[in-house]
Amino acid sequence: MNNFISYLRIKYKYAERTLQAKENHIENWEKLCLKDQELEKLTTKALLSLIENQKKKYQISTLNNQLKTLEQYYNYLVAIKKRKSHPLINFRIKSETKPLIQGLLTEQELTELYENYSVQGHLGGQFNHYRQRNKVILGLMIYQGLDSITLERLEIGHIDVEKAIVQVPRISEYKLKERILPLASNQIMELHKYLTQTREELLKIIKTEQETKKLFPKSSKTRFSSITQSIKKQIEIENIHLLCGQR
């Protein structure tokens, strides 16, 4: 155990308080092992069984913190050649995604809202470009559960239309690591149009440098949260129409 703590101290430069917490994490995982099990030799299947039991005891954020320590422990074992492979690399438990509109819409109804979200602005012209961008953002909110902070950090390279995936970047030390999420089939065409046409038009409108890699470029005066709030307000209006059968 001392060697592992030294490894963490050198590699991550953790404070002593953090190192003590991580030592406690590993000791707790060791206590969970059966008599014929050793933590350093556990298989992925055995670990998942332990994790399933821990999910009943801890909040997801707490358990993910413990899983991070466990991941570092196996990284250490691989580094010193006590294990050939890592049994649980980048594994985290995803928090339950909150619905875009709490308590009102089912998954099917959210899909209908997305598909029926008009890309035609009332005044036409540049407003059509904004609406098409908003539909792409809406899709990422519904199907991938992304929040405003994550959406703002997305870059062009994070979207792979051909493979139908989005690479979600890590936004802070306390958030989940980078992860790859599949795109829904009905997102592909909108994303393709946005990447090849709409985004370029928006760059001209907001006069942002063409070189920016941001997936959703905006002016310096615009807060990204105001964009998502605007989309949500529009969705609430369309939601009322949906529930009343006025689509």
UniProtKB/TrEMBL annotation:
Entry-linked InterPro entries: CB (IPR044068), DNA_brk_join_enz (IPR011010), Integrase-like_cat_sf (IPR013762), Integrase_recombinase_N (IPR010998), Tyrosine_recombinase_XerCD (IPR050090)
Annotated GO MF terms: DNA binding
KW DNA-binding (keyword) present: yes
Top-level taxon of origin: Bacteria
Residues making up the signal peptide according to the UniProt record: none
Name of the molecule in the record: Core-binding (CB) domain-containing protein
One GO BP annotation of this record: DNA recombination
Domain Core-binding (CB): residue ranges: 1-78
SUPFAM superfamilies assigned: DNA breaking-rejoining enzymes (SSF56349)
KW DNA-binding (keyword) present: yes
Coiled coil spans: none
Alphabetized UniProt keyword annotations: DNA integration, DNA recombination, DNA-binding
Assigned protein family: Belongs to the 'phage' integrase family.
